[in-house]
Prior knowledge:
Strand content: 5-15%
Mean pLDDT: 89
Number of strands: 15
Largest sheet: 7 strands, mixed
Shape: globular
Number of helices: 11
CATH topology of the largest domain: Aspartate Aminotransferase, domain 2
Radius of gyration: 26 Å
Number of domains: 3
Structural class: alpha/beta
CATH superfamily of the largest domain: Type I PLP-dependent aspartate aminotransferase-like (Major domain)
Helix content: 25-40%
Amino acid sequence: MYNFLPHTEAERQLMLEKIGVHRIEDLFSDIPGQLRENIHYTTLPQQGLTEIELQQELAELARLNPGASMACFLGGGAYNRFIPMAVNTIASRSEFYTAYTPYQPEIAQGTLQVTYEFQTMICELTGMDVANASVYDGASAVTEAAFMAMRATRRTRILIANSVHPDYRQVLKTYAEGLGDVTLVTFDPMKPGELLNSTHPEASKTACVIIQVPNYFGGLEETETIRQFCEASGAFFIVSAEPVSMGLLKPPGQYGADIVTGDIQPLGNHLSFGGPYGGYIATKNRHVRQLPGRLVGKTVDKNGKQCYTLTLQTREQHIRREKATSNICTNQALNVLKATVYMALVGPNGLKHLANLSVQRTHALASRLKKLPGVSLYVSGQPFLFEVALRFPIPVKPLLASLEQQGILGGIELERFYPDAKNCLLITCTEMTSPAEIERYIQCVEAHFKQMEPLGPGKPKDYLEQMEATC
């Protein structure tokens, strides 16, 4: 095969002249100089590497990233879970090589059937009648569900719990600002006051109430008050549900949810530096015409054979733009495929077992940490599953830095999102968190506490602030 890359300086110069620039650097003129690294492209090796040499080079580069081998106690919507090798093996089969958009059913039956099975599994998991496949992620799923409720009720007021993932709330806020006439109200589900009273003056204007189960702090919300309010006021009850947790919890459809959303990342999809993931939306049959994203149905062809095809298409490519439910044009087909294979392999009992393991290990870690002086739950009196928010009596930035030096990703600093959560960490355990890692975490925290002891109970405030500032 002819190599089109220019080999000599004369060839390079001729190429640059053809496209109307003088130097290679001119191709990057739109990037501010302070953001560009001073790289001399002519210093790149002129000869490529063999496959063996390339693998060795990549292995050396991988060793520069210590995070891959660190004990991970991070969560907050993205979870380090076990993924059977069969998931990627099956997802790599040739039947799914063109799995992006199954517009031509005659050549996409494999992809369409998998998508149909995914919808079925999500319905069984959530206790709902119909599910889509899919939207971008859990955040866009919450937003699209809220807009579904607004279209169905012809109302513009949205109540969302402050314990819903901060990123989800921010995405909803951004989308809502684009509409202009949306009233977005954040409330504390543990202290809702009069907001969840059907006699409230704004109750009749409320399109939906949104909560997350488990919430961002890992806790379980009380849902009956919300269900009663929604039933009395005619608002939609929307639940953003983490899928693995439903291996243990009652499906949201059984406690009155009108729409259930979530992110499928924990179902067979790697963390992958933040994505891509996939969001699901499940609802009741009577709301199916408001459902955004793709929907696959099962039918028969002209010969009477079972087949699958896209149905009830409500995107602006297929109907009048002003009648479309959404402008989301991407089906996260590969992520949906992996989630489907994962759920088929793990099954209901396996999902329950994984959730149980995660809960047991998180509670074991939390109970040990709470024995340390001054450590307490950030939200008291609320049961939690496999994430827990803990308040520490010392600055958590130095603590996280100390844990990282010991090869531990110790948790998420909650003050980033909640100003009143000073010195609080969100800590997560999954089935991938070994008992040995939990023990090492506790030992490292205990050692860090002992380093703080010489300061005594009257630690100078400026010293603690200085420690925070240096981290």
